[in-house]
Each structure stands twice: as structure tokens, then as C-alpha cells.
Amino acid sequence: MTDIALPESLAAARERLHVALENAGRPINDARLLAVSKTKPADMIRQAWQLGQREFGENYLQEALDKQAQLADLEGLVWHFIGPLQSNKTRAVAERFDWVHSVDRAKIARRLSEQRPTELPPLNVCIQVNMSGETSKSGVSLDELSQLASEIAGLPNLNLRGLMTIPAPTETLEAQRKPLAALREAFLQLKQAFPDAPLDTLSMGMSDDLEAAILEGATLVRLGTAIFGARGSASET
Ligand SMILES: *Cc1c(COP(=O)(O)O)cnc(C)c1O
């Protein structure tokens, strides 16, 4: 397990977000922190919860379900599924999560809507957009975005909340900002095209590009390493 002092690292992440928002001229409650807890034990999530963190992101279904079972006594947890999603996993995600950030196919969206239990509120979804071309296989292209958005907007048990991206890593702040600025532009266009959809979420910014993402309007940043420390092995990431 990683040697990280969670109280310090979580406080530092919150401070970093506040400073980034201030530097962007935005109110300090204008974006929130999603703690990405993949590969980290349930005890670390419990500790983060004790420190006031409520929203957690997970990538691997079985691992997430195991941790959810261990944390069933905690109140107010909000679970976000942020990893690639195959159709044979949609039912458990529809039943156990509050958000999915990685929707990039109509088939997946339809299954999530059909399988969402009716006693739960609609599942919140973001469409994952691929802003880096061939370096990533996940996500729709900007050309395909509007088509998928209209499919999702017509599904009864999903709320289309926004867009998510994982850009290819780049070095400079300016280079980081470019794809994020393009996603923001696509988000603004989407809001105009779908005025009835509850579009309020721009899910972008990770441990290495939080500042760029906040400058470009991110409303939810997904921090793993910065909060929980490095992830063990390459196969875990
Ligand atoms: C792992 C992961 C993160 C967190 O990445 P860090 O660089 O550790 O902050 C964010 N978003 C997604 C989709 C991830 O898979």
C-alpha cells in the first residue's frame, strides 16, 4: 500500500482546486472534486469519507462492487463509474452507481436506461469524447457527439448531464488547454442544441492537468494520484 497521509493529501487537493478556481476568476464552489479510488482499498475511501469527501470514482466493476459492500454503512456516498463499460456489465452499473462518465455508444446507453431500477432516480450520464484521435479508443468523436446526445436525451431513465474526456498527456499548460477548450466549446453547443437536457457537467481535469481544466471551465475534476497516492503496478492503472 502507498504511504500517503490522506488528511494532508486531500486538504492539498482541495486547496489546489480553490487556487485554480481563483486564478481562473471563478467562484470557489464552481467545480467539485471527484476522488478516483480505483485500486485503493475500501479503508482509504472510508477515511476520505470521514474527512468529508462524498463522491468517488471507480473504473473496475467487480472491485467497485466489493468496496461498495464493505462501505454499505456510510451515508451519502455518491458513486461514479468512470471506466470503459462493456454491455455485459451495464446491469450492475445501472443498479449500483449514481453516475456514469464513460458512455460512448447508443447501445450502452439504451441498456443502462432499461436496466436502471425504477425506484431509483434517473442515472446521471456524461458522454465520453475522444479529443486525441488515434491515441485513445474510448469516446465518441466530436462528429458523432450530437447523434449520441439525441439518443440519450430520449431515454427515460437517464439524465444527460454533460461531457467527459481523458486527453492525451502533454507537457505545457497551453498544450493541455487546447483539447479541453475544444470540449468546452462542444459542451456550449450541446447546451444550445438540447435546451431541455440537464447539461451542467464538464468532467475533465486529472492530477496532471487540473489547472488547465479549471481554466477551461471544468465543473468536476477527477483526482486519483493527487489524493490517494501513486497506484501500485501498471496492470492496476
Ligand atoms: C485513473 C483515472 C483518473 C485519475 O487519474 P490521476 O492521474 O491519478 O488523477 C481520472 N479519470 C479517469 C477516467 C481515470 O481512469
Précis, in short:
With 237 residues, the chain is α/β, with parallel strands linked by helices. Helices cover 41% and strands 16% of the residues. It has a single domain, classed as Alpha-Beta Barrel (TIM Barrel).
The percentage of residues in β strands lies in 15-25%
Largest sheet: 8 strands, parallel
End-to-end gap: 14 Å
Which parts are unreliable, with pLDDT below 50 for 5 consecutive residues or more?
none
Secondary-structure-derived class:
alpha/beta
Helical residues, percent = 40-55%
- Briefly note the CATH topology name: TIM Barrel
Query: In one word, what is the shape?
Result: globular
Provide the CATH top-level class.
Answer: Alpha Beta
Could you tell me the radius of gyration in angstroms? 17 Å
Instruction: Work out the helix count.
Output: 9
- Whole-number total of structural domains: 1
Ligands = pyridoxal-5'-phosphate
Overall description:
By secondary structure, the chain is of the alpha/beta class. It has a single domain (6-228), classed as Alanine racemase (TIM Barrel, Alpha-Beta Barrel), CATH 3.20.20.10. The protein has nine helices and eight strands. It has an eight-stranded parallel beta sheet with strand order 7-6-5-4-3-2-1-8. α4 packs across α5 (106-115). It is globular and about 45 Å long. The structure holds pyridoxal-5'-phosphate (PLP).
